[in-house]
C-alpha cells in the first residue's frame, strides 16, 4: 500500500493520523507544525486507491509543533494542541479560518496537550497536571467544570452516550 500522505510527507514526527467521521478524508498532523488533509478514494484497498491520494489542503501553525489533533464529531473542525503551549487552535474547515484559543478562563495549566472529544460532540476534556481534568463546551470552548483525581491522570475517555468520564491515574 502506498502511504496516504505521499503527496506531502511530514518533515517531522507525525503525532496524529485520523479519518474524517463522514468524508473520505484522512488528516495527518505533527511536529512539523502542519495539519494536512488528503482525499482517500477507496477505503477497501489499504486506505489508498493504489495510485495517489491527492492533498486537499495543509495549514501551518507558526511556532506550534502539534502534540495532538482531532476532528470534531461533525467533522467541521480540527482541534490541535501543541507540545509546549498553554493555548490550542481550532481550524474551522467550513470558513477556512484558524482560531487561536489563547486562554481558557479558569484553566491554570503550564501546557495543554492531552484532550478527548465526547462522542456526542458537546464536550472537550483537557487533561491537566496533578490529576486535574477540565471539561469544556465544544461550542464555546469555555470551561464548564474542573474535576480532580488522585495522582496524575494518564488516560481518560467518555462513555458512548457522553454522560460519564472514566479516567486512569498513576502515582
From TrEMBL:
Cell compartments where the protein resides: Nucleus, Nucleolus
Statement: the UniProt record of this protein carries the keyword Kinase: no
Protein name: UTP18 protein
GO biological process: rRNA processing
Major localization class: nucleus
Domain of life, per lineage: Eukaryota
Cellular component, GO annotation: Pwp2p-containing subcomplex of 90S preribosome; small-subunit processome
Alphabetical list of SUPFAM superfamilies matching this protein: WD40 repeat-like
Alphabetically ordered keywords of this record: Nucleus, Repeat, rRNA processing, WD repeat
Record InterPro entries: Utp18, WD40/YVTN_repeat-like_dom_sf, WD40_repeat_dom_sf
Amino acid at each position: 500500500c502506498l502511504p496516504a500522505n505521499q503527496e506531502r510527507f511530514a518533515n517531522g514526527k507525525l503525532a496524529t493520523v485520523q479519518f474524517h467521521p463522514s468524508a473520505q478524508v484522512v488528516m495527518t498532523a505533527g511536529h512539523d507544525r502542519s495539519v494536512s488533509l488528503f482525499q482517500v478514494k477507496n477505503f477497501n484497498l489499504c486506505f489508498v486507491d493504489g495510485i495517489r491520494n491527492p492533498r486537499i489542503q495543509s495549514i501551518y501553525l507558526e511556532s506550534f509543533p502539534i502534540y495532538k489533533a482531532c476532528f470534531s464529531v461533525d467533522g467541521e473542525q480540527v482541534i490541535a494542541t501543541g507540545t509546549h503551549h498553554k493555548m490550542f487552535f481550532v481550524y474551522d474547515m467550513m470558513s477556512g479560518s484558524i482560531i487561536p484559543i489563547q486562554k481558557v478562563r479558569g484553566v491554570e495549566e503550564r501546557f495543554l496537550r492531552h484532550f478527548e472529544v465526547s462522542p456526542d460532540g458537546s464536550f472537550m476534556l483537557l487533561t491537566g497536571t496533578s490529576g486535574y481534568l477540565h471539561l469544556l463546551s465544544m461550542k464555546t470552548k469555555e470551561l464548564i467544570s474542573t474535576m480532580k483525581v488522585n495522582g496524575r491522570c494518564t488516560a481518560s475517555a467518555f462513555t458512548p452516550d457522553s454522560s460519564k468520564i472514566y479516567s486512569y491515574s498513576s502515582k
